[in-house]
Design brief:
- It is a single chain.
- The chain is built from 19 helices and 17 strands.
- By secondary structure, it is an alpha+beta fold.
- Helix 1 packs antiparallel against helix 9.
- The chain is globular.
Length: 562
Amino acid sequence: MAQVPQTFLDGLAVRTWCGLALRALGRAREEIDAINVYPVADGDTGTNLYLTLESAATAVEAVFAGYATRPAGPTLADALRAMAHGALIGARGNSGTILAQLLRGMAQVLAADGAAPRCDGPALRLALRRAADSARQAVAHPVEGTVLTVASAAADAAERADGDCGAVARAAHEGARAALARTPAQLGVLARAGVVDAGGSGLVAVLGALVEACTGEAVAAEAVPDRTAPTPKAASDLESDPGPDGGGGACAAEDGGPAYEVIYLLEADDTAVARLCTRLDALGDSLVVVGGDGLWNVHVHVDDAGAAVEAGVEAGRPYRIRITHFGLGDVHTGGPRPPRERAQRAVVAVVPGQGLAELYTEAGATTVLARPGEPPASGELLAAVRRAHAREVVLLPNDADLRDTAAAAAEQARTEGVRVALIPTRSAVQGIAALAVSEPGRRFDEDVVQMTSAAGATRYAEVVVAEHRSWTTAGICQAGDVLGLIDGDVAVIGSDVTATAETVLDRMLQAGGELVTLVVGDDAPETVTARLEARVRESYLAVDTVAYRGGHQGALLLIGVE
């Protein structure tokens, strides 16, 4: 009789799980949004879970990309730490924050010092228990009938299972499904709406993906129950429900609950975070604080959003702050609140630094900031398109690696009735060229053609410092070498930033040009702008130069030649 091979989790299996879970949530996103009634009936649980997993998947892919030239790929610990960290920094909403803590709990077991290089059945049982327990501990006031209940049931079922990872994952999935079906009996607001818990439904999808990653066998997609016609909910009915599930007590601001959702990342020590939790718990509800080792994701519902942010400032350094007014959408996005009437046309652009963000904003664009090592997800681009509040939108990704992400955001925006044109700009300097020729008074198609032509006629380059030794199109570079990239390929390897930049500029202008655009990062030498402007004046008499400060943009210098 043939022996059934043992299944296990390693780094590659974690990558597979992450990708499968992202696709599963993508398929179920709209259905999960539709049944979202608790803790706030804002219809975004599925979207928040998807965006959280998308951030996790991006982090995992970045780890694998870093191992591309090495014979051995990322270990289980490498991949799982990346998945948990990506979820933490990209967690959205109540449900996404709890999912991030579930993944962190698993990583605490499977990626701990001395952990086995491959996860077997007993280790997975321990990891699922730690995940459920740590998520529950992160919630100020846990409530049964929520995703916390589903996670605990999955861990309980896993502990009763014998066998390898596949058997344990399958038991956890079945336990979660059964618990999900019971959630309406545990939480009155779900029963009145005729739905199961939205966050729990998303977790079932994630565990189904884990089964497939471990066994290679797809589980049947969970059918999200259709919402029945609920009895109209009076305020007194809502108040009779238990408190938040890490989560929140009120179902909407207009029903008497807090008006704002506040989320931010926080750099702080454990003692300061403990004090912060006490203060935020007194300010509002739906308090969930997840993370550790100096980095935390804070989520709370409050009436005084400023006080919640101030509490974070007192505890440490809050950043990536998001404040949402329930029923009004995102109101803290780095720009003014969208007007009530839609504009006819807008430009949405991804920019690598605050200096460029200000430049683009002055030119009328809605911007998405891409921090070094943290490319925006499609959900962030879609949110920016919505924020632009226009009937027609031109989308400038300004990065070749963001083209697919931008295309996904554009496709989703089109389903919402927005006319979107994606111009495949590969650098912020190409975006500047496109924005410079935009004329909202033109027909949309004509404007897109002119902007596309201007971007395509702009050659781009960047000057960066190599992070490690590697092969390039210009030869072997060592860590610390200065690299000059032209149109995405390494063309110059040098030791001095200014000299390398001059060589790059000369090579670009050999093919002609009328205008040089320089975007100088904060880490570039102070003299580089003056040297390059002098170089153009002395050697290229018919060429003009314009320079901007880019801020912390990753590259030391961006160069565009039109």
